[in-house]
Predict the structure of histidine kinase.
Amino acid sequence: MRRVAAVALLLVPVGLWAAPAPPPLPAAIEPLRRQLAGQLPDTTRVRLLTVISYALREEQSARAISYGESATALARALPPAVRGPLLLPALLSLSSCYANLSNSSEALRLLAEAQGLAREQRNYDALVRTYCNQGSIYHSRGDTVTAGQHYRHALRLLASPAGESVSPRTRMKLLGNLGSLAYLRNQHPLALHYDSLALALARRSRDATAEATYLSSLATYLMQSGQLPRVRRLLLQSLAISQRQGAVRTQSELQAQLAQYYTKTSEPDQAMLAAREALRLARQSHYLECALDAYGQLAGLAAGQGDYRAAYDWNTRYVALNDSLNSRQTMQTLAVSQVNYEAQERARRLRQLTAEQATQTQRTRMLVGVIAIMALILGVMVHLYRNLRRSRAAVAANNRALEAASAELRAVAVFKDKLYAIVAHDLRGPVTAFAGVTSLIDSYIAQNDQAGLARLPAMVRQAADSLNHLLDNVLNWAVSQTGELECRPVPLPVADMFAECQALYQTTAAANWQHITATAPDGLRLLADRNMTRTILRNLVGNALKFMPAGGHVHLDAAPDPDDAGMVLLTCTDTGSGMSATTVSALMSGPALPEPTPGPNLRATGFGLGLVLCRAFVHRHGGTLVIQSRPGAGTSVTVSLPVAK
């Protein structure tokens, strides 16, 4: 068997994590699916959906969720008389699916709802299961304190008279979880005790899946204590049972344990094969935690064999998957779920205490009437006081929310006013040019000036290009602010980009007796987004032409960055009137959208939106934008963009 497994492992690709094709459904599920296709009562349909979801929860959790969600939604829509007994198992099954897919927050939310239903129905088996599953989730997150609290709740229920109604399967799971918790706390004898009890109960119940699980746990504890000869036998027994059961997730865990065993016994080749098999099975069953362990084992084994390149690759995949499993958003959601659960627990305890107090008051009311009346008045006052505090807290929260919304609306209004002012200012030039052209047409026709009429198309084209350039800037700015503009770097020849920009503005420059030149080394290429690079060059050249007198000269130049081999410097130099140091400082350190300053000095606002857009696009590529200018000495704008190697 080991030789066949080794051959199969050699065929496993060692590429990046990729979602494999979903495995086929088990044969036992197909008859249930055919029944769902027929005309069934809603109660029967809920039971079938729950059974399918529970059967798929371990090996195909992603598929199981859709069935579990359907069962839960349909059960919620049933009449109250039949809703509870059907909704409870649906919630338990769906929570297991989310827990297997590492969505702890959703699993905890569903378990809290199931816990309330179990108390209402006095279903102590389901109640112990909810405590056990909650403890297992916190255990998997390393929160042993909270996990231990939930397990103690379950043990108290087992020790009570109600514990007689708890099923052997639930008892087994609780004992196994207690063993895992004791092992995590380095209480190895206690862990062996709990796991041995769970294994004996599994064998008496003839539960092969549970037997494989607890054999694996025993092997883990014995490996930790150094009893290696028994470890291999236990692991192979558990693996054989799991293969007969078709439990892919369990097989992946066992292969990872075998890899650890072979590492301890100095058998690196066998350890590498077992770790690769664990990774393959984990990817097949979407078992991310086991895949993470396999990546770590493969990295350590490769490093031990001196293959540091492979060790680095495996460790890179380990870090990427570990970051995904421990993302900040998931941890925050889990914290919120914990707070909500604790709040529900406190409310339940308060209702329970209130009910007990009312019962006790009713029993003693005839004997101590005066005391009962005083206790009732006190209870009413406490209730009203708590309601008043909650009302005040709700009003305060609403006020804070309204203040935050008002501040956000004010910020949006200020942003809108800035954008309108800039657009209105920059739009005035092209519109005025169009109005002037209409006047010139009348004048040239009246004077029969053919030469003047011949110059009109160039003037119209120049005004239209200016207006189109303004609209492009506004559109690009709006898209960049919404986050919908993606940066897609591709290799771009610098000479081609310069030639394209030069051809675009050649007519405009010739109409004002201005000149555009460009120089770029042969073969120099950028690794940048094509549209963003075009926008940067158009804004730099367009601004230079706009604020440069007739007869001026604009020059584009490109060269490798002498201080950074991974960057290229693109420079746009003009012979305009230049800017003061104060103006340059304001442009470089101004806000995301500059304040409009209308007046005769167009340079204060004409540079605004285009330059801010250039700066945003350059920063999107990891580059910089630098302005050098002096009054009367022209302006030079230099941007750095990544080089294509």
